[in-house]
Structure formats: structure tokens, C-alpha cells
Amino acid sequence: MKLSTYNFLTSMAIKGVKVGFPLKLTINKKDVVESEFNPTFVERILPKLDWSAVYGAAQVAELTEDIPAVQPENIGENEVLLQKLHHLLFEIDVLEGQLECPETGRVFPITDGIPNMLLNEDEV
Amino acid sequence: MTSWRKYILWFAQEHVDFRVHEFESLVKMFGLQVRRLTKQTQKPFWLVEFREKEAALQYASRSVCLRAMLELYAHGSKLSQFHDSLRAHVDANREEMAGYFRPDTSFKIVVETYNKHFSQREKVEKIESMDYLPIEGPVNLKNPQVEWWYIEFWGLDPTDVPPEPEDILFGRLLASGQRHLIKELSLKQRKFIGNTSMDAQLSLLMANQAMVRDGDLVFDPFVGTGSLLVSAAKWGGYVLGADIDYMMVHARCRPSRITQKVREKDESIRANLKQYGCADRYVDVVVADFSNALWHPRISFDSIITDPPYGIREATEKVETKSTTKDSTRSEDMVHYPSTSHYSLQSLYGDLLEFAARHLRLGGRLVCWLPFHREDYDPKMLPQHQHLHLVANSEQLLTGNTARRLLTYEKCSKYILPDPSLVSTTQVPTPSQDFRDRYFNNALESRKERRMRKAEQREQGRVEMEARGKIPTDGRSKKCDMNKARFV
Questions:
Q1: C-alpha pair distances (Å), B390 with each of A101, B63, B203, B362, B409
Q2: Listed GO molecular functions (chain A) (predicted)?
């Protein structure tokens, strides 16, 4: 699972959960997959992101020196930061780990890089 | 200087219904200025006018229906009229065309006829009928610098070929379409496929319908083996998928190839993208139930391309509570597989349209298939949504009485959270029966009836043939006799 996907996942499907975001991320095993930097794509995805979750992911991935805690303005003009965001959001691949619902503590496992967001019958 | 110029579009006569919508989608995507001169869309040769040559080339760079595009020099419906118009064109554009006729420019003339066969000698005669062309260069059949095309169109009906060709066209080859991709992305060589992987041509068409461009974010909520993501990624989209089937997403389900006993270790959707050189475009796949909300409200997709399960070859499923009186025999640490229940097509499409209305960007497109029984089809039965506008609808025949339609919706207004007290914004008219139920249990005629009817039809045809005085021949025995005669 890439950290960009992490930014979009919620646990709001669980019965009684209102927001279910951001999920609590634990990384047990990760991989760095190099991929081509596409500044327009990173720029286009920025307004869709929740910065607190971006920063949260950076903390878990131990990349906080790269990513500011508060979203700076005019990121589009800051190519260095865009590249760092690209690395954080698209090159770090969580192979094993888990996502935890902030409200109920329900754990969603990540195996072989694929998060399993299925719920049990009694949870929906 | 820009000026309108005429071009011949030569289409493959396959999925004929889809080419108009593909054309319109690409024109809209690139914002091309174009006029369509051929009104009859079934014809394999269209005459169109583009405002700029670049526009024509842009269209050819994406179309999978297009075989080739030619710059039109002459068109006529009678031979004499055609030759007059070609002479006039060459005279009028002598300066511009001089480069193609120079002594050091090699050339080749291709004769293409539709719905009528000509021998090589007849084709050469056709070429020689244009001996007034001031071509001075040498012939090069393998690798010419200029390729001229002479085309005769003899109607569409092979049982009723007209005495004269309907259209005679002459032009210069400008560009090929993208049909080579059909072979390049063929399922035969693909690493990871399943029972319902979409073939390369249709998935490329779907991505064109969705107007996928470089840097788009594309989502498939019923991803399966990711066959739709492959084509979207090929056009530069960043792809994200989800599916309820854990084994499928992890490529641990039963293999679909007859020669394969177990799945290979490295099969995956990511491996498919890597195979075609677009691993960079892979974002993620997630195991998730589509009927439950999962995605953050802020996410917006540029397009959603999907082929939902119809319940025939892949089950339509969602997670649901089933009331059982049995005591649970599970212990806490056992792996639990949630039970799934049937997810009716109506509610699935309702959810899909609602999801698209919520998560597409304005102007973004949803492209999906809808199966149905042909005799039931009524445009009124297509799902509707107040924020989605149906822009294209083309039919592909499946077996027997069934068909599916490729529906393209465009998000036309900003999503507003529906007032729960009002009726639903999605309208999925309920056909009298579910597609699956109808398919297996309640077809209008049973298989036996169908077989009997077909046999009756054949018998009737044979009787009519005899009445016309034609002696029925047994094709197979004739062939055997010919083979025997060879060895006597």
C-alpha cells in the first residue's frame, strides 16, 4: 500500500463510526519502489490530500525532516518539496502492517502490500 | 495558416457500434475542430475534415477503431468523375505535392477494395488507370517514402454487391491507428488473467471513452485481474482498484489457463502493468466491499472504468449479516472470512452511479457495462442519476439472446448530499427479473426449444434451396473426395 492510498482510506463503514479518519498506521515491513516523478500528477493530487494524514504518514515512515507539519502555501512552485512528496506518497510501499480505526480500534491488516478493508457481517 | 482539410478514416469493421462514440470522445478530449462528412457510420471509410493536420494526428494517436488515416486527394462515386477530380486536385496543388513526386522519392500504391475481390492483374490495371499522376520516383514496396492508397468501396452487404463501386477514393497514408496495441496487450501473453478479464481491444476502447489522459487518477471498483487498469495505464492514467475477492486480488485464485495448474508466485496486477512498461502508473489495489463506504470524501477520480460482475461467470457479492441460530464455533484467534450474500444488479448499479456522482471530478466519466436480455431492452431501463449525464451507449452482442451495453456517463453537476427525506437521486428501473435469474432459469425459450427451432430453420433453408433447383452438396464429403483424388 502506498501512502497516497493511505490518505484516502477510512473506516466509516463500521457501524457507529462517524469519520473513521485518519486510520492509525503501523508499518512492519516496507519497500521503496522507485518511480518516475511526474510533477503535474503530484500537484493534481495535492488538493485531494488531507495534510494532517500526510504528516502522520511521514511520521510513521520516519521522514518528518522532509515534510513540514503544516501545509505550506504555493507547493506547486516548490519542486524540491514536490519531489519529497512524490517519494513519500508514491515510492514507499507498505508490505506488511496494519491500519487501525481511530474510533473503534478495529484493525485492518496489510498483507503483501494489499490492505484488507473487508468487515465482518456484524460490523456493518 | 490553418485551413480545413479532408481526410479518409479507414476503420476496422469490428465493434462497429463503438467507433462513433470513440470518435466523439477523442474529439472532445483533445478539443479538436472537426466536421464529419460521412453520415453513414457503418461504412468502413469515413470522410472527415480537420481544422489542422495536428488534430488529425492527435486523433490517430489514440483511436483503436481506426486502421489508418489518409489525406484525401480525390473522391468520386463514378470512375470518370473520380479521375477528373484527381486530375484537378493534382493540377491545383502542383507546388505542394511536388515533394511527393520527385525522382528521389520512392513510393508505393496500395489498392484496397471493400466487399469485392480483385486479382493482382486487375489491381495493377487500376493503378495504371492513374498514369497521369506525375510520379517520377522509384517503386519501393517494402519501405516507401510515400504511400498512396486507391480505395474502392462496394457496399456493405456481401450478398448484394452493386454493379459499380459506391465510392472511389484516393489519398496519401498519413498515420496508422493504434490497433497494434490490441496485439501488444493481448490476454494470451498477459501474466495474470482471470475468467472475466476484458480483452485488450474493448478495454482500450473503454479507456478512450473515459478520456483517460496523462496524469489522470483512474479507479476500478471491481478490479478483478486489473485488465481495465492496463489500458488506462497505457494511456498515462494512474490506476487504483478494489475488489471484494481476496484470493483474486492476491492472485491466489484458481488459474484460468487450461495449461496452468497453479498460479505462479509473481502473478499480480502490478506484474501486469510492469509487463507493459507502466509500473510507474500503479497506485494500489485494495480488498474491499463496494457496497460499504471506504473512501475519504475528498478523493476525486478523473474517471471510473469498471466491468461489474453480472453473476454469471463471477458472483455478485457483498458482505451482509445473516441471522443464524447456530452457536458460533469460532474462537477469537481463528481467521474469519465474512459471509457474503447476493448483491442484485439493480442495487449494484444504484450504488455505482451514486458512488460516481460523489467521487468523480466535474466532467469526469464513468464507463461501465450493463448486461441484459435483448428482447427486454428498452432505453428506459438504463440507470440514471441526477448528477450524471449519459453520453454514449453502444451494444456488444454476447451469446444467444444476451448482450451488454457499454455506458458512458459524464458528471454534469456538483454533487449535493441528497436529502434523506426525498426519494433517491439514482433511478435504476427494475427489470421484471434479475439478469442472472433470467439467464439460468427463465429464458424465453429453453435450450431445447432453441435447438429445435434452429434445426427447423436449416431444414426450411434446404427445402427452399432445392425448390430453386440447387443441388445440396455435402461440403465435408466433397473435401474428402478432393483429397482422395490428389493421391490417386
A1: 38, 21, 19, 14, 4
A2: protein heterodimerization activity
